[in-house]
Amino acid sequence: MDRDSVIERIRQRMAAGALPRVIPPLTAPGKPTSPTGHIKFDTSIGIVTCAACDTHGAQVAYRFPDGRILRFHGRCHRIWEDECRRLSLGIPASTAPVDGRPVD
Ligand SMILES: [Zn+2]
Prior knowledge:
By secondary structure, the chain is α+β, with helices and mostly antiparallel strands. The chain contains 2 helices and 3 strands. The chain has helices at about 5-15, 75-90, and strands at about 40, 60-65, 70.
């Protein structure tokens, strides 16, 4: 799946609530670099599907404070984080391609 398709899926899923719209907040006092969600490399590589693009081989497991675990490819995870940042800045998706292409 190409990057644009993944971005589109992630945007749709975030809009539908299937993917979180925010990166989990930082909660550990004195450890500002430690999010409550954390990333670990999973042992079920190649078996689980990616929460973003639905293909197999997700490499990153992201555990959220509510206990939900989402698995992503490394690339898909970065795209999702980019989308979260974009939303947090209030930039409309249609005018803010995350890969730096000029608009129109
Ligand atoms: Zn993926």
